[in-house]
Design brief:
There is one protein chain. The protein starts with a strand and ends in an 8-residue tail after the last strand. It has a five-stranded mixed beta sheet, sandwiched between helices. A four-stranded antiparallel beta sheet has the order 17-18-14-19. The chain has four domains: 186 residues, Ribonuclease H-like superfamily/Ribonuclease H (Nucleotidyltransferase, domain 5, 2-Layer Sandwich); 197 residues, Alpha-Beta Plaits, CATH 3.30.70.370; 114 residues, no CATH class; 89 residues, no CATH class. It has 635 residues and is α+β, with helices and mostly antiparallel strands. The longest helix is centred in the C-terminal third of the chain and has 30 residues. The radius of gyration is 27 Å and the shape is globular. It is 49% helix and 14% strand.
């Protein structure tokens, strides 16, 4: 039995992402939709959740399931069970999976065949599949006033709105399945992704707090830096007296610094068109002044010019978001599904916060709690090695990882022409040459698997790892990299074969998840396989941890809360007295779940306890127990 259902609620507000339920509407494809008030909803919902023959269809399932779980807490175990059994469907996530498989994520084609941006909401999918425009203005934000009003006294418009949401959800689901371009393989991964989305939503509902004094200190430091930056830019003509940017002067400096390498297009640095004068290039607006270009310029004033923009954004946007976290928890929006399978965070972005010193340190646990961060060790390299084992039967990268060898140090030793043990000994002695070559090897090990050529690798290494290298040196490094990891020549040959199509785009099916991705350019295809596998392993851990936190009384994780998910790192909040036990359990669950995806190349994970989120925190043990790293000098 298929049943599409929807909730209408009171308004969401800061700190409350699962507001009180007002009514439940549902539709089974026959007759008219049904509606009951919130007091009658529990019995109906419980019947659906308990019945293994009922598949529930929703639009933004995690939101509705959270509303139900807060309103009727004793139904939460049944919600988890329905997710585990794969009896939940979400038309928004389904459409994302379908569009990613067809190579048209976040876009559609107009009647002229042109690509235009598109989004994922019930209203947009109703227009796309049904040609029906839903009224999202009249009653959407007004249901709180009807919560204690009998349905027979509701205005007809309020009843119609709730009914149409349920009907449209069912009809969109039906239309998705009946689309001639649709195949079931496009959404085979839906239950897995929905479980991860549920875990992320519960994380967001709990939120993460910030520390007022730390935020104030950060704001003061940023404002002081901004004042000094403004003074330097004004004195050199890059800012006018009224504070406006002098983009013409900045572009002229960029041309002077980079010459013909100063022009950018969406794929990287390109030469200025033949015969195009520098002045014409400036006036045409072809010169990039973004962070990458400013770093490449080696011009301190251009770096300051870019930093001025960063500082302005940090103060006006990020600091303000951090301030709100001192009053109510920050509840960032997490997108469960990007093209590679990775997640993203926004409003604000706590997954990839600004790099400014002091930003992470603003995040603190609630009173009596600590943070436990657990990070997979070299997760993407483990995934890459597993993919090569799957494809070719063996992998030197897999062999070295399984032997407990650091692949970055291994590569550095190869570049220096010494043995691994000698390199390891010199590393232990703080050898600066070993440190420099390991950083170069790290850039190679993380940059070249994505299909970067020598030119783009130079940019990548400089911006991401502060490694400066010429194109000729990059070519030699790439050849040495292939010598160290010979399976990678075969890997790229497979990608080239996949891209050997009329338009040069690949159509990919990921073997371990059966997820599909269409119309993939070469470098994106290179990245997709190992990034997707890494994401799958981490999402599986996210779901398993969340189940323990909410349902497993015997787990040390019970009663703890995930507060951030950073691709291959999970941060939880835990009462301090039980932090060691929770940290060990967190580590074990993360390893176990990930290794189901990389059985031939087992991954490791390292937990650390912190009193505030700190990038450089390391594990600290005392009497065999993990303790907060801030206490390292007190034991």
């Amino acid at each position: 039995m298929l049943v599409a259902w929807d909730t209408e609620t009171c308004l969401i507000r800061p700190g409350l992402t699962a507001p009180p339920l007002v009514c439940l509407s549902w539709y089974t494809g026959e007759g008219n939709p049904s509606i009951v008030g919130w007091k009658e909803a529990k019995t109906i919902l419980q019947e659906w959740l308990e019945d293994p023959e009922v598949t529930m269809i929703l639009a933004n399932a995690a939101f509705d399931m959270a509303v139900v779980s807060v309103q009727f807490p004793d139904l939460m175990p049944l919600v988890f069970e329905a997710y585990a059994d794969g009896r939940i469907r979400d038309i928004l996530l389904r459409q994302k999976l379908i569009d990613i498989a067809m190579g048209c994520y976040r876009m559609k084609w107009d009647w002229r065949g042109r690509e235009i941006p598109d989004g994922y909401s019930l209203a947009k999918l109703s227009i796309r599949h049904l040609g029906k425009r839903l009224d999202k203005d009249t009653w959407r934000t007004s249901y709180a006033q009807l919560r204690e009003v009998p349905l027979e006294d509701w205005p007809p418009g309020a009843l119609h709105y709730a009914a149409e949401d349920a009907r449209s959800t069912f009809d969109v689901y039906k239309a998705q399945n009946e689309d001639p371009d649709y195949s079931a393989s496009m959404t085979a991964n839906e239950p897995f992704q929905l479980r991860a989305a549920w875990a992320l939503h519960l994380m967001t509902a709990y939120g993460i707090r910030t520390d007022g004094p730390a935020v104030a200190e950060l704001e003061s430091a940023l404002k002081l830096e901004r004042e000094k930056t403004i003074a330097a830019l004004k004195s050199n003509g890059l800012l006018s007296s009224n504070g406006r940017r002098n983009t013409k002067e900045a572009k002229a400096r960029m041309i002077a610094a980079l010459g013909e390498r100063c022009k950018l297009n969406p794929t990287g640095v390109q030469k200025v068109e033949a015969g195009e004068s520098r002045l014409a290039a400036i006036e045409a607006g072809n010169i990039s002044l973004d962070r990458e270009a400013c770093i490449l310029s080696d011009d301190p004033l251009l770096a300051a010019y870019n930093r001025f923009t960063e500082l302005t954004t940090l103060i006006a946007k990020d600091v303000q978001a951090l301030k709100k976290g001192t009053k109510t928890p920050i509840q960032s929006y997490f997108e469960i599904m990007m093209e590679t399978g990775r997640t993203s965070s926004s409003r604000p972005n706590i997954q990839n916060p600004p790099r400014a010193p002091g930003v992470r340190e603003c995040f603190v646990p609630r009173t009596g709690n600590v943070f436990i961060a657990c990070d997979y060790d070299k997760a993407e390299l483990v995934s890459l090695a597993q993919i090569c084992v799957d494809a070719f039967g063996k992998s030197r990268l897999a062999e070295r990882l399984n032997a407990g060898i650091d692949p970055h140090l291994d590569m550095a030793a190869q570049l220096l022409g010494i043995g691994y043990e000698e390199a390891k000994a010199r590393q232990g002695q703080g050898d600066k040459e070993i440190k420099r070559f390991r950083q170069l090897a790290k850039a190679a090990n993380f940059g070249f698997p994505g299909g970067l050529g020598p030119k783009k690798f130079c940019m990548y290494a400089r911006v991401q790892y502060n490694v400066q290298i010429s194109e000729e040196e990059a070519k030699d490094l790439r050849n040495r990299w292939f010598e160290n990891w010979p399976e990678m020549r075969k890997y790229f040959a497979v990608i080239r074969d996949l891209c050997d199509t009329e338009d040069g785009l690949a159509w990919i099916t990921l073997s371990r998840s059966n997820r599909r991705r269409g119309a993939v350019p070469y470098t994106a295809a290179c990245n997709t396989f190992f990034q997707a596998l890494t994401s799958d392993g981490a999402k599986a851990a996210l779901w398993a941890i969340t189940r323990d936190q909410f349902l497993n009384w015997d787990s040390p994780l019970y009663g703890t809360h995930i507060v951030n998910f950073i691709h291959d790192e999970i941060i939880i909040e835990c009462p301090e007295p039980f932090a060691h036990e929770a940290a060990m359990a967190l580590r074990d669950v993360m390893i176990s779940e990930y290794n189901a995806f990389t059985p031939d190349v087992p991954v490791n994970a390292t937990p650390v306890i912190m009193r505030r989120w700190t990038k450089g925190a390391e594990p600290v043990y005392h009497n065999g127990r993990l303790i907060p790293w801030e206490d390292r000098n007190n034991v």
